[in-house]
Request: fold
Amino acid sequence: MTAIADIPEAPRAARRPQIGNPVLRWLRTNLFSSIPNGILSVLLLAVLARGIFSFVQWGIANAVWLTPANDSSACHAVRGVGACWAIIPEKYRFILFGTYPFDEQWRPALAVLLFIALFYLSTRRALWRRELAYLWIAALALISMLMWGGIFGLSFVSQDRWGGLPVTLILATFGLAFGFPLGILVALGRRSKLPAIRSLSVLYVELIRGVPLVSLLFMASVMFPLFMPNGFNIDKLLRAQVAIILFAGAYLAEVIRGGLQAVPSGQYEAADALGLSYWRKNRLIVLPQAIRHVIPPLVNTFIAFFKDTSLVLIIGIFDLLTTAKTAIIDPAWQQFSVEVYIFVAGIYFVFCFAMSRYSRSLEATSER
Amino acid sequence: MTSDAPRPPPRRRFFGAFGRRELKGLFWQVLVVGIAVAVIAFLWSNTVTNLSARRITTGFAFLGREAGMPIADSLLAYNPRDSYLWAFVVGIANTLRVAVIGIVLATILGTLIGISRLSANWLVSRLAAVYVETLRDIPLLLQLLFWYVLMQALPAARAAFRPIEGVFLSNRGLILPAIPIGAPQLWVLGTAVLGLVVFYVIQRWLISQQMRDGKPRLAWPFALGLLVVLPAAVSVLLDVSWRIEWPELRGFNFVGGLTLAPEYFALLIALVTYTSAFIAEIVRSGIQSVPRGQWDAGNALGLRRSFMLRQIILPQALRVIVPPMTSQYLNLTKNSSLAVAIGYQDVVSIANTTLNQTGQAIEAIALIMAVFLTISLGISFFMNWYNSRIALVER
Reply:
């Protein structure tokens, strides 16, 4: 490991004269600034080159990109030396949309596009107004209509046939849409002066945060029927969704509480002085400031939920990861799970990376 | 809760005269608590009815019954005829085994990568950044399944990889040479731990002496005596053997050495690499939070770089690093429950099997919650203690 040299650099008054080839100069300052650094760079370059070379050999040069439908013999021929990307065109419809009726799969595809549009619009600072909430309600209603159907000539598709990417997006987005108001209420409850409400909020947050999401999901899938009156039952997807909302509520409450604490007490006092009621004070004065403070951590929390929705695999709900895992059960393609996992990891990565970039740009602008 | 008074009324205790504000507050509390109690009572009565309909008796009596489930990989001795209670204990030991080792390894790896991100070497810092970005943006469960598939694709025991002599990597897992630890070895290790405690007390005393008269005192002779000479003497006196046991291939499997089963190994790698990406970011921001003036001041005093890092920069960076690190440790422990997806039998997996076998859903979930809440509280308690030790002491 090289010494930490990024921050502590003394102001470089006596720089080396800027002469010579700029490429060589860059190489010298960034890779070969000292002898140990030079040795390290050469070693790393060698390892990296080797790694990239073998990956290119496996993933591109020796890979099989397309095979005739349902025929994996070409892939079996290169097994161990080349990747079998042909499994992706073979299975992508199942991985992305699960068991949704094949001819109707344009509906979940459209739903995914709507989700992406919704996320994109939510990042526009100019749209951070009350209308954004209406936009969310409208978009989520439209997505539900597309997925379920049953009106406007769309055939009805029950939710046990949903699967793949739309399910992942639904679990994460609805978790946020319902968990957010819940989180606001609980955060306010935790800062309330009323002891009973405060302790109930603390109990809720600490209980949920203290246990793994897996056990909450188990609870939703196994114990929910026990909690309900005899004969009453709701769908498995909805139960998992409720567990994710409760989970999201507790974590979002802690983030929002951080924002509430950052609002100067003068703001509260000013609102009191104006004679505003508790709810008006929070709605008009405190919350708008508090939430603006915590938008970057909120985005980070959302990234975490987006990844955590994959845990529903454990209770057998067909999200993106479960469909991927199911797609490779097929005996002909069983050996090529690594390729499928890389494909799905790429999808998750694109969503999470975009969000984390956005969160970082927000932090950068708020620091200015 | 309107503030109708022109000036804030004096705060009254609960049994003071009730003003309008207090009455309103009381009303809200009664309402919320009433709703909570009603919901819980409703769920409870449904549960009792449902359980009696299924002829399941509530209570923890089932813990004494024979478990009958196999546990492939366990730290403690176990066979299927043992009780459910013992199966749970074995599960807890398995959870702790992956969590404790995972926390130690993730801290080391994360710190190295966090420091690498700040390296002056462009290649090192870029590689560290790519590592962090990639691992953070892919779900842990997906990474876990990926590692597990790779483990299963390893060659059979006969064709095992041998990266170093005595280390085998095959589809049976990772096999390492080990020193068998029995009662005599434990005596020696116990002496060393005792020596560490005594040394800690002596060192505090030495520092307090130095604080009084300003004369530095040497601590290392005590360390040498208590940590090396004393355990070595006990080892010689008791004639303890420290023979290394080398694993050997016999037939289709390995004999001797320490075996990390593929499930355990995959879980450990996934948890360590995933968490280390988050720890790296915490370490990086902690070091960056130390103002540059501190480095300049150290340079001006002519201090050596390593001394500066140890005595000036790290103590200040740790104040920023420790609180978020605590939540990463908690996350790693909670994430170890993903073991159920690949069949490593941690406490969640065993509770799940118990639940399927006995139908004691409430008890099983209550046990999971109790275990994780205890572990969480334990980690929080330790980290809060550590945090208060390193916190800024202000006059």
User: Anything to note?
Assistant: The radius of gyration of chain A is 26 Å.
